[in-house]
Amino acid sequence: MTTIEQDQTTTVATAERPLSALDRCDSCGAQAYVRATLSGSELLFCAHHANKHEAKLRPMAESWHDESHRLNA
Ligand SMILES: [Zn+2]
Is the pTM of this model over 0.70? Predict the structure, then answer.
């Protein structure tokens, strides 16, 4: 059986939207500073959890929007 899936309609739209105080880490609920897009769905991480998951997730992510530098500004 051959199935060709054409499911590329929901892509990059939000990739460059800046993170705000309303964006919360999916792991702990702290303010998110990183947004990763994986298979079309968004994951939000605080700096701590972004750091923890980056090595594993970043190579698979379609986008990795990192604003953690704002913490050190
Ligand atoms: Zn967190």
Answer: yes
